[in-house]
């Protein structure tokens, strides 16, 4: 390659006088960036006021965080998909498939009282692999057949659920005792962990996602494809390959979420997580992700997931009937996005 | 001077911290063709958006047709007699010509739409398109025809003022000429026209009076007769511009790109052969739809190739068949898209991301980005290219059209290829910046880069290219040195495919 | 219409195998697997072909209506149905009877006079049994949570009602601290609701759940919060996990129905109806309270560990 | 600067040469337009071959058609929404709400053995009105707060379901006998009707939708907004008003669908039609509707609904296990859209 282009600095036009009021606007910007966080805080404070003291006990705090794990982990994958301008309706089914795969593999080890560590790890990897295959298929179909992901994943949602029922023989699959079941214990086994291992894994995965999105070329490609696919192609990004990578990579997160789901249920359940995809999408969107692509963040999405968990927990604590909970969650979903719109207005 | 139709006084408009308009005055007489000119980002489009009702001014007064005029939305503006033809076409692609033209003003009976075919046909006839079938879906029409459909929209209403914002930037010379005829017919009907363009020759050719904007302020107005292009430029830029087409010495070297009988899968191009040398600036001329864009898209791997042999730098493994954009980029090709908004830029990403997107390898290691280095590189380009922005973290979408184009070019320069395909590189760019880009292209050539430049603006091709070829219906003429081409030869080949 | 008469006519000839449709509420609880096994056993004994088909989405009444309609179209000889709703399924059942396809209802009741027989557990009785057990365990006092199953499910609503009735009877001094929360249709929803309830009422001493998924969800919540064994827990229905819970003392009582018998008797009865033999209008298949004390008795073992594979894997 | 260019007089670009095979391409076009219809036909024929003769009995034909009614009617509303570039995830919840409203109103008439005609009509209108209010709210929120309909309807989905449970006191609401219950009878009461009244109503509504879309100004606005919203706005279409009208109008269809659902269930069921929105959307998309707006037809959507009904019925007839059905339906959804893509390819 020839040496770098040397362009003499332009002389024709005078540089634009720089704007002076950068300070106040940057304060605003920071405030806006933390909008989901403030949302979480205000919901929390609201419940602290309304609820019995049991709500803000440390133990309940642990409960809420543990209940965020599954949606939270899956939301990391969904965040990447949504930033890339896609959507995945099949996550719930994939999670169900994952739990069934784990249970089936665990049962292969024979009817011992406790499953060996080897087979336990194999089971977890099996679930993750099963989800990865689903993700890969979705990526392949969307990018090769050029079908919108809404439809592809709507189809895969049915297919994965059907396969889960098939593998599980339409039943919940019970399993021997094993270490995976300890991932979501509110009082973790080595007590110094304080939180369940699942919580620590979530924190790790959130950090991983944030780093991938911000500091890697792959992350940059995700944003580029979501913002303008044609530009991405023009700039030499192999869009269909990247898209397959995105769906496969995020399906790995779904796989981990399914391990957590199994840990919660201790059985393989082909009907598990029905409709959970909507919770997951809602979490990402509440956290600032835009369904038209190019916007979203790991931090925002996990906060979105936390908001929903706090709401559910708080409503249970208050003894609010289930239907009121549903109404409140519906309002919150719309409200959060309305605030996000408003934020964009201010920014512009 | 005839009666004043439109009078704007002290229009001020800010977008957050950006002051787009700082007290503009504009007066347009009945039935005149009024040019509105200015550099990129001077505020022309913003002013017109205010006139059409798409934006509201912060302060200032507008008098239209003797009455104060405060449109709340574009529809109100349209019904009050101001029609706006935007830089980007505004049509509903799934609807037919008739449906598009009568959109919003349908006649109906009990909610059922009545056919207004005759009205539409009449409008099309005035525009010289009597054969166009009103029931054709618009997404099958060429850009020029689509533009006429937009103008027809103005004719079915009692329109007194038509605003054309850079209407010719995506038209070829022939279509431009046809458009001028249309404008003349509008004038004959007593309709006033505000005409925005960066092509000052055009402006001088068809306009009666002009107003110049600079940095959101009116800096001059007057009658076109007796004003030279040089004077217009001086008012726009604030000083005189001595050399529009600079020439930096460069020599042609060995062949770097050989194309033989290239044929695209989508019928265009049908047959293209040429050889590009190191340090050569090759111009490609032709009518819109001739297939010039498709040709370079095929070469870059964006469109599918049916047939043909392509050799890049003598390498056997780089046939057009196997090319994908990523491979093309790796082997030293780069492409500047003609469609900035849809393809060239990711408009809701920051400037720096756009500049470095095709060369992330240079600022990354094992897939990890060096953000500081990336930002620094982008900032350098912003300075060198004189991009008017607050900060390279700003979204590209917030820049004016010309500045967006500069960002696209900065991406190419940052990637630093050996062969540049530039599709309409000066589209929507003001004269001052144009001269900059010409100088840049010359500089690149002098450094041993090769450039293929597609343009529908003949003077610039004649001004800066070393060699030139013309395309007619997918067939590329022979490449000849620029000095052996005449305007006449070029137009002859472009319209009829006959070589002299 | 005429077509249909011909389709039923050629099966009335009697030489062919009877085709009996058995329609469960869902297919993903082991409860239904036992019913299936019982039905297959009865089918073999009576020489009838068993067609097993549930609604595609569990707890979807509309889907179950369609399944019944499709079986009517298909012209089966008899239908054994576990209705998801005691009223919605009345219309299709009436339509079946109108087309000379008799129907036997199993598991939960249907508000219709057209069906031939009702083969089920006395759900209210089951709920009462649980209440009695819990009251005994708590010594007649304490704080108790009842976690409901899901909105609009008739059989579980009966068990809930029976429990509340039983509590008045056997433990009038017991305080019911929460009875309005629903577990939801899946185990995972039950689990979260249970966790939150247990956090809200750390002082709870006794818990009751009315079906398999809610019991299992609650069991898991008790386990993860370290309350298992400490809180007296009585549930409904059995599967491998729940039986293990009884064995290790985490569940103190499990009302177990006899689904195998339900399927068996259901098919036996419908065949009797079709062949115009004698049959009972109401068959009670019984409910038994399984506890750590009686779990090893052979009759209980047969109830909770029926040899399903013998019937289903062929 | 170079001298002014002399431009020869205007020449309108002659048409490109490769457009001569108009005849064969118009045949192709007609064939392509009927693609969903052929899809239906081939699915039907497939089952005729595989299934017992009971499948193609007239009675089963009636069964299939009657089973299409609810999804079919709701799909008409969804067609309009999808053409306008929107989506509605709350349809299932709205239907549930409708059934509960009907049941509640019927019970107001006192505990008679049979509800009077007056109160029956009132009940049906009440359900339709309830849905219309939901639709209006959706339209209002999307257009005023500028939130994507995916999110708004995701919220309303929860809210409507919550309200339905609230009105129904978290239970199915039983009702006195009434004429609404006869709308979906396979053997209709006046026997000369041959099909259930619901089927006739569906046919009427399909015709109505087709006419509205093709011949009215409102229909044209629907297409214009879906095709290019900005243009619609510039041309003076009151986009937010029209959008509210679209959502409200199509909610009327949802209301009628809820009456049919009630007729089927004969009770008000707050948990009814969960997930049905996905079936409805799938029907529209299988029938050629495009989720990016501007494309779709009433005829196509009803055929899409029929395809799904035939599939379900045929699988039942074959005695195919549920999980296999799920997989097949998933594959069909993706396949139908893949064919549609292909069609666009040929057309282009
Ligand atoms: N929506 C907006 N938000 C922020 N700034 C804006 C917006 N629209 C325009 N501007 C700014 O206002 C100024 C004037 O822009 P405008 O588009 O009117 O320029 P123009 O004269 O039409 O330029 P060009 O010739 O490049 O089209 C520019 O500095 C631009 O960045
Ligand atoms: N067969 C056709 N029928 C109608 N319009 C056509 C046809 N082929 C091309 N066009 C129109 O012409 C436009 C420009 O085509 P193309 O990009 O190939 O031209 P070009 O020679 O590159 O011209 P330019 O670079 O000036 O746009 C296309 O976008 C399309 O709208
Ligand atoms: Mg402009
Ligand atoms: Mg072009």
Automatic annotation (TrEMBL), chains A, D:
Pfam families: BPD_transp_2. Keywords: Cell membrane, Membrane, Transmembrane, Transmembrane helix. The chain crosses the membrane at residues 30-58, 64-83, 95-113, 119-140, 147-167, 192-213, 234-260, 280-311, 323-339. InterPro entries: ABC_transp_permease. Its main location: membrane. It is found in: Cell membrane. It is a multi-pass membrane protein. Residues 1-22 are annotated as: Disordered. This is ABC transporter permease. It comes from Rhodocytophaga aerolata.
From TrEMBL, chain B:
Coiled coil: none annotated. Residues 6-240, 254-498 form the ABC transporter domain. This is Sugar ABC transporter ATP-binding protein. GO terms for molecular function: ATP binding. InterPro entries: AAA+_ATPase, ABC_carbohydrate_import_ATPase, ABC_transporter-like_ATP-bd, ABC_transporter-like_CS, P-loop_NTPase. It comes from Rhodocytophaga aerolata. Keywords: ATP-binding, Cell membrane, Membrane, Nucleotide-binding, Repeat, Sugar transport, Translocase, Transport. Pfam families: ABC_tran.
């Amino acid at each position: 390659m020839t040496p770098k282009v040397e362009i003499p600095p332009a002389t024709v036009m005078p540089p634009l006088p720089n704007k002076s009021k950068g300070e106040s606007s940057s304060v605003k910007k920071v405030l806006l960036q933390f909008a989901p966080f403030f949302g979480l805080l205000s919901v929390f404070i609201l419940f602290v006021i309304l609820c019995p003291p049991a709500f803000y006990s440390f133990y309940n705090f642990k409960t809420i965080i543990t209940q965020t794990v599954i949606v939270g982990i899956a939301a990391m994958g969904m965040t990447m998909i949504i930033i890339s301008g896609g959507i995945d309706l099949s996550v719930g089914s994939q999670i169900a498939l994952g739990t069934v795969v784990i249970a089936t593999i665990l049962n292969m080890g024979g009817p011992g009282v406790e499953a060996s560590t080897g087979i336990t790890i194999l089971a977890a990897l099996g679930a993750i692999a099963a989800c990865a295959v689903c993700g890969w298929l979705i990526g392949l179909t969307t990018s090769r057949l050029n079908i919108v992901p809404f439809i592809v994943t709507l189809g895969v949602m049915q297919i994965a659920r059907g396969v889960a029922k098939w593998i599980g023989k339409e039943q919940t699959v019970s399993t021997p005792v094993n270490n995976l079941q300890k991932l979501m214990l509110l009082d973790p086994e080595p007590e110094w962990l304080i939180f369940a291992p699942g919580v620590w894994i979530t924190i790790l995965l959130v950090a991983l996602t944030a780093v991938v999105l911000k500091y890697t070329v792959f992350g940059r490609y995700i944003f580029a494809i979501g913002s303008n696919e044609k530009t991405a192609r023009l700039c030499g990004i192999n869009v269909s390959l990247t898209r397959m990578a995105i769906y496969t990579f995020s399906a790995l997160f779904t796989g981990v979420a399914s391990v957590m789901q199994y840990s919660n249920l201790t059985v393989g359940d082909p009907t598990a997580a029905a409709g959970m995809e909507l919770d997951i999408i809602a979490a990402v969107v509440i956290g600032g992700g835009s369904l038209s692509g190019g916007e979203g963040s790991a931090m925002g999405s996990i906060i979105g997931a936390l908001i929903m968990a706090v709401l559910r927990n708080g409503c249970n604590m208050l003894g609010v009937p289930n239907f009121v909970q549903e109404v409140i969650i519906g309002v919150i979903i719309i409200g959060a996005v309305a605030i996000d719109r408003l934020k964009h207005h201010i920014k512009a | 001077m005839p009666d004043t139709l439109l009078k704007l006084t002290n229009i001020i408009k800010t977008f957050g911290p950006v002051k787009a308009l700082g007290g503009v005055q504009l007066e347009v007489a009945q039935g005149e063709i009024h040019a509105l000119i200015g550099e990129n980002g001077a505020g022309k489009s913003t002013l017109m958006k205010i006139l059409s009702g798409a934006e509201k001014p912060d302060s200032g007064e507008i008098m239209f047709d003797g009455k104060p005029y405060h449109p709340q939305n574009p529809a109100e503006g349209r019904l009050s007699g101001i029609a706006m033809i935007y830089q980007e076409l505004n049509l509903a692609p799934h609807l037919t010509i008739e449906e598009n033209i009568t959109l919003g003003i349908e006649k109906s009976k009990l909610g059922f739409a009545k056919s207004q075919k005759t009205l539409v046909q009449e409008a099309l006839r005035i525009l010289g398109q009597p054969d166009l079938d009103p029931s054709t879906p618009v997404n099958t029409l060429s850009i020029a025809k689509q533009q006429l459909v937009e103008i027809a929209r103005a004719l079915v209403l009692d329109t007194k003022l038509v605003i054309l914002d850079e209407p010719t930037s995506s038209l070829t010379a022939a279509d431009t000429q046809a458009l001028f005829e249309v404008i003349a017919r509008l004038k004959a009907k007593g309709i006033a026209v505000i005409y925005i363009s960066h092509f000052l020759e055009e402006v001088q050719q068809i306009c009666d009076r002009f107003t110049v904007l600079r940095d959101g302020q009116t800096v001059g107005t007057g009658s076109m007769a007796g004003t030279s292009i040089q004077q217009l430029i001086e008012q726009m830029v604030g000083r005189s511009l001595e050399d529009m087409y600079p020439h930096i010495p460069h020599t042609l070297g060995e062949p770097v790109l050989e194309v033989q009988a290239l044929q695209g899968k989508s019928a265009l191009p049908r047959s293209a052969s040429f050889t590009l040398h190191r340090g050569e600036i090759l111009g490609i001329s032709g009518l819109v739809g001739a297939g010039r864009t498709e040709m370079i898209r095929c070469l870059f791997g964006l469109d599918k190739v049916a047939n043909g042999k392509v050799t890049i730098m003598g390498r056997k493994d780089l046939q057009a068949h196997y090319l994908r954009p990523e491979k093309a980029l790796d082997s030293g090709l780069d492409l500047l898209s003609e469609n900035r908004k849809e393809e060239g830029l990711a408009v809701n990403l920051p400037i720096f991301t756009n500049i470095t997107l095709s060369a992330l390898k240079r600022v990354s290691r094992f897939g990890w980005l060096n953000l500081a280095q990336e930002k620094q590189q982008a900032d350098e380009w912003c300075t060198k290219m004189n991009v008017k922005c607050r900060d390279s973290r700003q979204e590209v979408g917030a820049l004016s059209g010309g500045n967006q184009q500069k960002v696209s070019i900065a991406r190419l320069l940052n990637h630093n290829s050996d062969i540049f395909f530039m599709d309409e590189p000066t589209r929507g760019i003001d004269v001052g910046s144009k001269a900059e880009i010409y100088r840049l292209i010359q500089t690149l050539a002098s450094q041993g880069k090769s450039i293929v430049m597609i343009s529908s603006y003949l003077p610039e091709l004649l001004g800066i290219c070393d060699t030139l070829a013309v395309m007619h219906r997918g067939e590329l003429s022979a490449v000849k040195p620029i000095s052996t081409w005449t305007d006449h030869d070029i137009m002859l080949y472009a319209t009829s495919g006959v070589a002299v | 219409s005429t077509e249909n008469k011909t389709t039923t006519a050629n099966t009335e000839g009697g030489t062919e195998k009877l085709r009996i449709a058995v329609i469960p509420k869902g297919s993903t609880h082991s409860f239904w697997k036992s019913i299936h096994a019982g039905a297959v056993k009865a089918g073999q004994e009576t020489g009838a072909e068993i067609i097993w088909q549930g609604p595609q989405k569990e707890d979807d009444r509309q889907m179950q209506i369609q399944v019944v309609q499709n079986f009517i179209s298909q012209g089966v000889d008899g239908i054994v149905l576990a209705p998801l709703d005691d009223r919605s399924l009345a219309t299709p059942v009436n339509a079946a009877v109108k087309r000379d396809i008799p129907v036997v209802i199993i598991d939960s009741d249907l508000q219709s006079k057209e069906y031939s027989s009702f083969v089920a557990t006395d759900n209210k009785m089951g709920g009462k049994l649980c209440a009695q057990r819990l009251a005994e365990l708590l010594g007649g006092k304490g704080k108790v949570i009842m976690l409901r199953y899901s909105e609009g499910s008739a059989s579980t609503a009966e068990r809930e009602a029976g429990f509340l009735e039983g509590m008045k009877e056997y433990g009038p001094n017991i305080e019911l601290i929460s009875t309005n929360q629903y577990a939801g249709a899946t185990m995972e929803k039950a689990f979260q609701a249970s966790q939150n309830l247990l956090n809200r009422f750390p002082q709870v001493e006794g818990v009751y759940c009315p079906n398999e998924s809610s019991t299992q969800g609650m069991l898991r919540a008790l386990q993860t919060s370290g309350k298992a064994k400490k809180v007296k827990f009585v549930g409904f229905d059995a599967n491998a996990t729940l039986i293990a819970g009884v064995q290790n003392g985490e569940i103190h009582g499990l009302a177990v129905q006899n689904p195998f018998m339900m399927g068996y008797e259901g098919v036996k009865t419908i065949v009797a109806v079709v062949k115009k033999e004698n049959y009972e209008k109401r068959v009670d298949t019984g409910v038994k309270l399984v506890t750590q004390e009686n779990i090893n008795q052979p009759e209980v073992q047969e109830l909770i560990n029926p040899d399903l594979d013998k019937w289903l894997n062929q």
